[in-house]
Specification:
The protein is an alpha/beta fold. It has nine helices and seven strands. Helix content is 35%, strand content 20%.
Amino acid sequence: MAHDALEPAAPPKAPPAAATVFGERLELAEQFVAVLADTGITHGLIGPREAPRLWDRHVLNCAVVQEAIPVTEATQRVIDVGSGAGLPGLALAIARPDLELHLVEPLARRTGWLSGTVAQLGLANVTVHTARAEAMWDEIDAPWVTARAVSRIVQLAEWTLPLLTAGGSLLALKGSRAADELEEGRAALTRLGVVDAGVEACGTDLLDEPTLVLRATIGDVVDRRRFRSRQPSSAGSARRRADRPRGARRSGPAAGDRPHHQP
């Protein structure tokens, strides 16, 4: 349901970098930006003040993460956790039609919007799931998991590492403190099964502020039973959700110190 107090905005013009990132699919990316400026705002998925910055702060910021996923002959699956407004999931699906995107989002009002947007844009390489990440552990896996503005890296790893195939990587879009966050959580990540972790800059030749991606790679497939023992009870999760302030929106850039929520 749309929020009456929120009005759609005029979509900003695509900057020159957009043509480089999206190539022949630039028009599709422009349609996505127009949807974000319209129903993305009226449905409360994007803050109204973010409209002028939809390209550089959101869509391009997310799409350049494709640099971290090499092109292969076979179709690669990517699971985007806590998809919200389709960032980075839909941006990646547009930029890389060779990828098979699975958007995992627990809130039905968001997945309703995502499904409608996928249909409107005609994205055949996207599937939307209304679920938390841990509910998908036995349903789907992939060599890549992405997340933006979901949680700090250790908590995010506890939710998402069981979704990875052997040798797979979690790509977490982060803010300026990405390196500090990694060092603070490195020991815990190792205990969770991460064998290699680092911070990469994507879009350095395209964006004024490159996107920082915290990559955490596992070796063997992690033991899901051990991860399940770390998850809070559903009753406890419900109490924590009830205690959280209402009305928060994930409209800003990915940052380690943003409010956290369970995907």
